[in-house]
């Protein structure tokens, strides 16, 4: 049983224009034969489908959307399923969620990780493929897309809940794949927390774990005989230049489940750079860089050092981000060190306690979700 998984898909700018005229060939024609080599293909659908009447939610970051042509395009390419647990699925509220689900069902595309409420979003997808039963668990880190008991959105990353989901899925299927949307954007290594969590999913019974979200590809490892991929990169996600680091390269991974082993195959590509669309590269295009990532990932000391360096490099931007007096003018002055940050040592100490202490964090979480400005 061969399962192919691709990263983040968001048809905007040049891609959106081509899709609206139903020119799917220019964008996805080159990778269509690759999908035909697999029994089941999955891509992360990184934006809701909107018809023009939906209103964007209030959030930090962009509100993404596309038309139904996005679903038509992935179907044309040969994808069978979309993952919906990501940080943009709820960008246009419940209307966007419903529009996306309806478009998937209309076009015969399976979906997992998103729904009209938390119960629907957390459902495991079961598929019978080549006389074997596959289970797919899909979840994402907490941003602005998480479903609740009464509102739509994505299935949240919660290792305790995922433990029971994986255990149940394993009892009902031959193989279980966990697909997670998380990590630091434009950073090509997983955090130690990610490594610990994804290995835990393997310990819980998963046969493979695949991650995306960072908009750049990362490395992978084999843990207890099971593959963990820590970042596929963008699949098809056009943006305006200058392109962020790693934005225009990525890879799809094929998981070949065999009786005694799981074989993996990587398909590197460039996407939406000078040339529009997804263009396959040589099989060994990223080998040297990925090998370096793999060596760091499997050495906990090196990974911790790299993560510390990354966090240290972003200290100033984080300080600006959490300053409570932020506006465009103040932010510009603070970046130029012409105005000091406004919070005190006492305020920072209090925030540290609120965030690091589990009990306090529960209260802060409720407050931030429910306080009306």
Summary?
With 373 residues, the chain is of the alpha/beta class.
| SSE pattern, N- to C-terminal | EHHHEHEHEEHEEEHEHEEEEEEEHHHHHH
Q: Main β-sheet, in a few words?
A: 8 strands, mixed
Number of helices: 14
The oligomerization state is: single chain
Proportion in helices: 25-40%
How does this structure look, described?
The N and C termini lie far apart (52 Å). The chain is 37% helix and 23% strand. The longest helix is centred in the first third of the chain and has 14 residues, at 93-106. α7 packs parallel to α8 (192-204) and α13 packs across α14 (358-370). β9 (175-181), α8 and β10 form a beta-alpha-beta unit. The protein is built from 14 helices and 16 strands. Strands 1, 2, 3, 4, 13, 14, 15 and 16 form an eight-stranded mixed beta sheet that branches. A six-stranded mixed beta sheet has the order 6-7-9-10-12-11. A two-stranded antiparallel sheet has the order 5-8. The protein is of the alpha/beta class and 373 residues long. It has helices at 14-20, 24-28, 32-36, 69-77, 93-106, 118-121, 159-172, 192-204, 287-297, 300-313, 315-322, 328-335, 345-356, 358-370, and strands spanning 2-10, 40-45, 81-83, 110-112, 114-115, 125-129, 132-140, 153-154, 175-181, 208-212, 220-223, 226-229, 234-237, 249-257, 262-271, 278-280. It has two domains: 2-300, Purple Acid Phosphatase, chain A, domain 2, CATH 3.60.21; 314-370, no CATH class.
